[in-house]
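hey m, so remember when u said the tokens were messed up on ur end? i reran from scratch. heres the input so u can diff it against urs
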Amino acid sequence: MEVISHPPASKWKRLSIAAGLTACAAVAGCQTNHSRNVPTRAPVGAAPTSPSDSISSQTMKERPLAMLEGQPIGISTMQARLIEQSGAETLRELRLEAALRRTLLEADLSVGKADTAHEEAMLLERFSSDEDTARMVLQTLRRNEGLGPERYAALLWRNAALRILVQEEIELTPDTLQRLYQLEHGPRMIIRIMVVATLQEAEELHGRLVGGEDFEDLAAKRSIDASRDRGGLLDPISPEDPTWPQALRSEIVDLQPGELSGIVFFDDRFAIARMERSLPADDVPFETVRDEIELAAQLSQERLRMAELAGRLGVQPKIKVLDPVLRRAWSVDEAAEEQQ
């Protein structure tokens, strides 16, 4: 449920706190959808073959969920559509929860009310220091993500379980604290970047830049990075920021204002950077911010470990899908996951 902060002005920038609940859901095995209190169990009944078949004789035997023009609507009427909409997602949530319960039992650990309350408190703190504002943001995000009382409580439980299980893996070394201190309070660089898809294009553009053409103009016309709208200009970068590719940081760290980098390859793209100016470190002593640095380092490691653990556990329990509608939804969902 943790959030990786800093909004992406380009492909490699840090992720946004505004995407908080979505990121949380991803770590916890809860994908985005817009369902509302979808039943996890439903009586077996024939799904309607068309909208005109919605009110069936079967519905009359069930406890109505709603009334439509005086006619009752039961679970059998809604079942197929609910399963298609969020059945696969619900299976993923249940599978991860089953794996977490087993792992907690093996480790003789448990999740209590205080643990889930702590998860919500951390989430609210990330949204705003003002509690009323934070709760308004949370309410909006829950509504957008379809997190009603049951799914939201399950989300908090999953993240509490994950956090408990990774605690023994957390290690705060002096080197880790110093790197984070430098990241927050050390020197930074302001650069422009141009990203293209092929080495041939990168070589062409690099040659034109060396020949004196304007970086900002070429970036706006040719770069495929989101920063092209600003002529390739990025927010300040720390040499210690691991969310930026090491190849890029190594290339620009010794540049002087106005100098070009070489061609940098990472992922499946090619980049050229130009140093605009350097910003000096601030004057904040390490000891005055040590406590907050330790907390930030703790949370950062927890997020990473929780995501890794959720990824490992979330695929372990075997699922045999019996219902044909759910089987179809599950197959489509799994195929989409493999393509990502």
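this time it looks ok to me. The two ends are 21 Å apart (CA to CA). if urs says something different then somethings off w ur setup not the seq
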